[in-house]
Amino acid sequence: MAAMRTLTVAGLFLAFCALGLIAIAISTDSWYETDARRHRERCKNYSNKRNDPGYIYISNNNLPLRMLPKENNVERKGSSGGTLLRAKRHLLPPAPAMESLCSRQFNSTITGLWRKCHREGFDLETEDLIFKGLVQRCTPIKYYYSSSALPRNLPINLTKTIRQDEWHALHLQRMTASFIGMAISIILFGWVIGVLGCCKEHDLMQYVAGLLFLMGGTCCIISLCTCVAGINFELSRYPRYMYGIPEDISHGYGWSMFCAWGGLGLTLLAGFLCTLAPSLYPPHTPVAHKPRQENGCV
Prior knowledge:
With 298 residues, this protein is α+β, with helices and mostly antiparallel strands. It contains 9 helices and 7 strands. The strands form 2 sheets. It has a 5-stranded antiparallel sheet.
């Protein structure tokens, strides 16, 4: 009996902690983070390069000279057995690539379920515009379809592909938000049932609470997997020159995402404990009643 109560209380405590972690994840914006400081500094250095006649600009990161692997550059000449190694050097013009990357504006941002914000203290120019009121710190994420502005010279097939990708990305966002909302609602309902079952010592209510915790964990898994799929889909959208991220921009998941994953783990563990607790109840043995003696007959 004591072991059953211990498992039930432990499961309810873990479910309460999971509710707190998931609520923190939903209410914060650090699901996905980008850091564009290195890219902006690189583009600033490129725009400030000298363009006077006779000056050749060579980037420190992308040198224009590159040597191919040795086995591809070996050319044998001569009939006397003499071998000459010739290394072929190819010119790589970095200027057009740099101009195409720097023509797009990249900022250091954090993204949550409800809004996308500029990271504080990362871009001084952006901070100055925010201080003057010209740029908003955060912009809400739209859960309804609104077509983006596209160049008019794009082919029709490419335009249709972009529109379809926008719809697909919107569906992934909606699934992420809806399933995480369902998860926290189911977990909260199961926690209330589990508390009532623990107070009344009702094993069936505790078992139902455990099943609800497992159901809420399943919804949380779907939401987090959909969120990861949506981020990967945005990074791989076509065409790359419009939606790709340069290599010198660091990006990754934030602490809000890890809070959601932690809440998921605690929810599944709480469901396992609450469904295991009713099996520790002592078996109910029926009481056998002796037949009464009536009229002196045994």
